[in-house]
Amino acid sequence: MSDSPVIKTMRVVPVAGYDSMLLNIGGAHNCYFTRILVILTDSAGRTGVGESPCHASTLALLERFRPQIEGSELLRL
């Protein structure tokens, strides 16, 4: 048996926020931004957070893989 912590929970949280309009070489972006936060908590009580641009396909993929990630040893991912 490994001493590697096990991922106990994986939370997938879509968020939106306000950002001032910014004009750059690609044009102007919208005044709102959307992101997906992924929050992992392991069996040792540690929490890690990651983020990704928010697309429906990304959100669906993260939700689809949640059962395979929860319960996995951290060092085996």
Automatic annotation (TrEMBL):
Entry-linked InterPro entries: Enolase-like_N
Domain of life the protein comes from: Bacteria
Key words of the record: Lyase
GO molecular function annotation: glucarate dehydratase activity
Alphabetized SUPFAM superfamilies for the sequence: Enolase N-terminal domain-like
Gene3D superfamilies, alphabetized: Enolase-like, N-terminal domain
Protein EC: 4.2.1.40
Listed name of the protein: Glucarate dehydratase
Gene name as annotated: gudD
